[in-house]
Amino acid sequence: MHLRTLTLQAIGPFAGSHTVDFDALGQAGLFLLEGPTGSGKSTLIDAIVFALYGKVASSEASEDRLRSAYAPDDVESVVDLVFEVPAGTFRVRRTPAYQRAKRRGSGTTLANASVKAWRLPAGADVTAGTDALDSLGVPLGNRLDEIGAEIQKVVGLDRTQFVQTIVLPQGEFAHFLRAKPEERRGLLQKIFGTEVYERLALRLAEMRREGDRTSASARAALTSGVSQLVGAARLGEQEAAEIRAAVDAAVVRGDGLVEAVRAAVRARTEVLDARADATRTAAATADAARRAAREHLDRSTATEALLRRRDALRAEHAALDAAADVNAEAILQLTAARAAQAVRPLLRGADRARAAHEAARKTVTAALDAAPHDIATPPAGTDLRSHVQVAGRSAAEAAGALARLVDVEAGLEGRRRAVRRAHHGIDDLIAAIAADDRWLAARPDARRALVAELDAARALAAAAGEHESALAAALQTVTAHRDLAAAELGHAEAVAARATAGAVAATALAAERDLRAARIADLAGEIAAGLGDGDACPVCGSVEHPAKAVLEDDHVSAEQVERAEAARAAAESALHAAAELCSVLGERSQALLARVGTVTAEAAGERCEAARAALARSRAAAADVARLLPALEGFDTLTREREAERTAAVSRLAADRATLEVTLQDLDASEAEVVTGRGDHPTVAARHSELLERVAASSAVLDALAEQETAQDESRRRQDELAEGLAEHGFESADEARAAAVDAAVLDELDRVVTAYATRLDRATAGLAEPAIAALDDDLAVDVGAAREAEASARAEADRTSGEASVAQECAAAAAAAAQAVHRAAAVLAEAVDVAGPVSRLADLTGGGGDNARNLSLATFVLMRRFEDVVAAANDRLLVMSDGRFELVRSDEKEDVRARNTGLAMRVIDHRTEQARDPRTLSGGETFYVSLCLALGMADVVTAEAGGIDLGTLFVDEGFGSLDPHTLDAVLAELGRLRAGGRVVGVVSHVEALKQSIADRIEIRPTPAGPSTLTVRAG
């Protein structure tokens, strides 16, 4: 995969639009990505990873960092990447999700992430710019999910593999180098995706545990079933022990488990079935004898009851014959009382009718006395009823004619008061209209003054943005002066520290050189000191040493040289760090000096105070505008409301005047009509009341006359009915009927006595005539006690045999059910054992147990083989970078006694001493280039795993500052090998030596305003 161009806008510290031409940088094969810390070097790598996968390089970082804090709200954040793979040239354009200002109103809204991708035609000019490329290529879509899948397919790597191979994370591989095997295992799993083997082993272990639980549960079920069988069959201790022993032996043996258990159980259940059959036969015989005894007892009891009933009926019939005369007298008295009871309502009706007729005559007299004299006294020869009807009808007609005028007369006073109120209301409206005219006349002048005040406040508030910009610029200048003073002081201190470090490095270098020269000069003495008689000389090979060199007292040992070398390396490292810090602080001082320009600190402070005061005045004016706008609107609203009120009052005044005129005319007409209607009475109501009284008196006389006639007719009818009733029931007179009458209680008692006598006589006669009683012999006798004793004895025997049969059958049935449960449990156990065996063996093998001699799990074994590939690929470069000194080897030893797995330990072979070293003993520079080799080796293995993908562009991140010049040259030479293999290598660093060694570069610099700029220098 080759990167062609990258365009980004409003991303991270880059507020503007910048384009990186990787084709131009790739001409030399090696380029430098450099700039101060925090300027945006890592942002370029994040932009590349985001364009391809929609996420930044670090899995722990958030995509929120992509949106530039320096970009205006209307500028979109965009990453546009063109890259080439064997399948063709592709372009992808992504925008991250971020909060932007709302286009309407205040606040923010979410701008959603978006993506577009194209396949570009062969030979397309990818440097023509995004606008020109928009019309080229075939669109691949614009959905996040489909573009993500398409990009991963054409690149051939997922995001994790891409970051591990294209952007080599030295910090992570330095941790990988020093990590414990368990931690190393996690990283390898993440890179190579071998979690499937881990999940397989875990699943097999879980299946083994499930099989063990199933087997244990089946064993427990079998044991429980045997216990239930023992209880159901009510076996003794010896029998229970025998069946448990037989089942346990079958479980231990395993083969033929189900048949062995079935045979052991069958021997017990057959005995119980035979016992149940014998008890069932005995119970049937005893039950037949019980039924025969019961039938004999029932017959004896029934005969005894018939004899007792015959004796009782004979005694009752004799007593009734003795009371026959008394019963005849009671029948005569009951007949007379019933006849008097039938006539009694007629007697009462005649008495009530006579009393009602008398009351009606009194009511007529009273009504005539209460009526006016002219109504109660008719003219001679005139019927009273007719006279009263005519007088009442005349009074009712006159009262009806006056009824309306009574209401009119009653409402006259209220209508007069309403007229007076209408006059007052008209006067109030006239006064209110005059007040509105005076108030509205003063409004125009007041409004002009309010508008003038608002215009002045608006003019002053409009300058707030200008004052804010001036204040921000002044504050930036003040801050830049303060930062410049601190930066110049820090730079001076860094220059002094660099000079001191240079002197120390020069001294250490001279000391190492002198010690090496002294050691070489006295090397012959050191060799001679180690030679004994007969030893071959390592120089000439002779075994004779006539004149051996003498070892001086101040001889320099190899350990002294190594210490001097370490001191020199530490001094050079300190010098590099001091030089780098001095460069950074110098660049920062120059940038701050350019930012402040010619403005002095005092002038900047004065500008800041003046801008702050002007801004305060503008903000106060803005507050006045916010206050005056509602005030003006309220002023106009109040004016319009008052004008509307005046218009409504004028309309209401005209309407009220017209209504009053009509009301006065109606009132005059009503008063004239009332005067005519009252006649010679004081009021119409008095005349109307008198007429109503005459109508009521006439109605009372007529009602009394009608009631008298009705009562007279009713009295005559009741007397006729009474005479007919007395004759019908045999009474000579009403007095005779009253004498024969008795109370209801006495009548009921007579009826009860007569009826009871007849009922008892009939019942006794019918009972004695029943066939069962009539057929009994007079000397018949039965022995019920003997029959009852025989039946009880037979019932007891039947109950005993039935209980024994029931118990035996229940025991046999329970034992049969328990035996079936035991059979099923044995079958389940046998199946569980057959299933769990192979799973358990596989789980032991994949988990590192059982026959696995090295205790290696399947996941560890796979990772160990991948790890060996990584170590072999890393050693191809490490032997070159370390001048053949270091070599990595995988170790089967446990680095920690608490480690669970072996095979992922690592050692570094130091070929100077041929000793295996712990990676944690390497120095900082050694750790860097060993980690770099591991990262490059990991990249080779990962790409091979992904199908031999061509990695055309590679980024190597920070870490070069820890290398001495010799090792740095070796590392650059190895990177040159990558370049010779067709890769373009980007080195991310700000080490001065790299700036001098690598001409093509991407320079990133922060501006005085804050955002960074990007410059590509190639060719």
From TrEMBL:
Coiled coil: none
Domain Rad50/SbcC-type AAA: 6-207
Residue ranges of the TM segments: none
Highest taxon, organism lineage: Bacteria
Subunit field text: Heterodimer of SbcC and SbcD.
PANTHER family: ABC TRANSPORTER ABCH.3 (PTHR32114:SF2)
Family statement drawn from the similarity comment of this UniProt entry: Belongs to the SMC family. SbcC subfamily.
Identification of the protein by name: Nuclease SbcCD subunit C
Taxonomy of the source species: Bacteria, Bacillati, Actinomycetota, Actinomycetes, Micrococcales
